[in-house]
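Folding problem:
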Amino acid sequence: MKKNKTTHFMSGILILVFVAIFLILTGRFLYIQATGEINGVSLNDWAEKKRTASYPLHADRGKILDSNGMTLAYDRPTFRIYAIVDKTYTKDSKEPMHVDDPEKTAEKLAPLLDTDKDFILQKLRDGIKNGKFQVEFGTNGRELSQQTKEKIEKLDLPGIKFDKEAIRYYPNGMFASQIIGFARKDDGKISGVTGIENQMNKVLSGKAGHISYQRDKYSKKLLDPKEVIEEPQNGNNVYLTIDQKIQTLLEDVMSQVDKKYNPERITAIVMNPKTGEIIAMSNRPSYNPNSPKDVENWYNDAISTPFEPGSTMKMFTWAAAIEEGVYNGDEWFESGSYRISDRNKPIRDWKQTWGSITFDEGFQRSSNVAAMKLVWEKIGPEKFLDYLKAFDFDQKTGIDLPEEVTGEILYNWPIEKVTTSFGQGTTLTPIQQMKAATAIANDGKMVKPYIISKITNSETGKVIKEKSPEVVGQPISKETSEHVMDLLETVVKGEHGTGKYYDLEDYSVAGKTGTAQIPNSKNGGYLTGAENYIFSFLGMAPKDDPELMMYVSVKQPDLDDESHESGSVPVSFIFNNVMKNSLRYLNIEPDKDANKPVDTIKVPDLIDENTESVKQKLTDSGLHVTTIGSGNKVVDASVAAGDKLLPNDRILLVTNKPVMPNIKGWSMRDVLQLADLLHLKIETMGNGYVVSQSIKEGAKVKENDYLGVELEVPVNKKEKDKKAENDSET
């Protein structure tokens, strides 16, 4: 009986426990059913989230364009490849939707993705083994071109799919790269890293949107997907003041000098002195923003690298003396050397002495003694400092580019005050010199340099913001500026002028040469030797009404010792070619030798004319002619009827049966001109001259065909000798 009572008691306890558990669970279910929540989480929201796919809709990044609307940077569509390896995705075994033959798939894809078959096969097998739905192939499977995508699609491989994604693309390759900069993709978003891409990142980026819809386990939309779309707001377009044709000419000429003279640095700027607009700007070394690897120089030296300018500084010294009313160009002085006190060593002229000469002749000859005497004896060092500040040499120019650095006025000791007069000790950037020189070229008015012309809506074209010229000072009068311009002309045309290399046939030039010493970082003082200088020239043309102003500097070029080659030779090659051709391109009337017949060739009617007769006529005139194709009729040309060309200028003639020419050895400028004529989609890799082309010579070409070219800078003799020496040591 006692045992029976215990059993009944324990059974009762268990029944109560089970009843309590049942009531708790039932209550919990009733609560969940009534509220639709678990631990504060809405089951409806959770289920909605699980079956809802949500993706960002990236805004198209705005374009960067030149002053004429030529595209310099844009979002180029590329493709990412992936492979579906889940066999449950296939509904009909006769038409597989997944990768059913990994071995065959890997073998076919490997050469098109430029990777090993084993790499792709391993990816596919690992995905199948680990139960993945799809796999990708790393960097080899990203940024595929339209051409590669089409080749893969023709293979008809089951399970191979593509996603479209954009990359930032620069169609001109190594073109104003330190101005434009580059952008790269990070977490699916393209962001600017350097240059205008970085400076104007917010303007270019726009605002991303998103899309959401309900899906099944294969991410396919349900019949009622409840789709929600928030459209992205695309970025705005940024127009630059640079002109693509002049910039391309500058890049081409600088590459030639870089190839021939192997200098450590080259910098060049072309500006409109009346407005401050930068027409072209470039440096060497440079880089291709499409593949910024092994970059020697990230800096835009034109705005970021101050150095002792040398004798280009003298134009501002003479301007200060003339403005102060203490200058007499006919006054004589003894050249050779100058000593401001017994505590300082004498400072000599670069040619030691010319005897007694006038101050005007001293300017022509670029006399250091004349500059020092003007500052120390005529103007006064403290008053000269006021002029240095009036020319804004103590501050940044404010140009709309990132990473601008200002130079330093070194003016603590008497010796520094006189050496500043001829550009030693004190440092400036090229853009600081250009800004100050606008006052000389522009009737005393100094204008602010700028490179962003306007910002427009990428969809409507409406101008959102537009820049205009800004006068930021007037350090000298109109009369002084005209006097200095007359002196600058004598540097080029005068009997004793140091700038005779810069004389143009059709246009009068006013400018100043510079030969700046380079500080010796190891032993102090300055480097010695004929090549260890920064050779420069700052010039304007036409002299009486300057339309263009240009600065060029070449640091430590390899000069020909046997012919006693001057440092002005590589500098003048850049200046003369770019200035002359730019003025002609801008239709600036020649102002020199107006009565002398100019040795130019007028282009006749070309379109619809017989190819062979036109080619013969142009060749006989002294032009270099390249025909595109074997057709008997000319349908397009790189020049128009009536254009005036110089002997040996190149002309491209497109025939009615265009085929691809052999472009190996062509410059970037020639290739871009060809692509423009044939309406090709061009991609350039590297810089220098063409070494390979994707369209074979003789192949038929049609509009929108893809042309990929690889360019290289030829190895010069110095580099070959250095390599041979290293190999010998090894």
User: Anything to note?
Assistant: The chain has four domains: 2-50, 55-239, 244-585, 601-712. Confidence is low (pLDDT under 50) at residues 716-730. The radius of gyration is 35 Å. The CA atoms of residues 206 and 235 lie 4 Å apart.
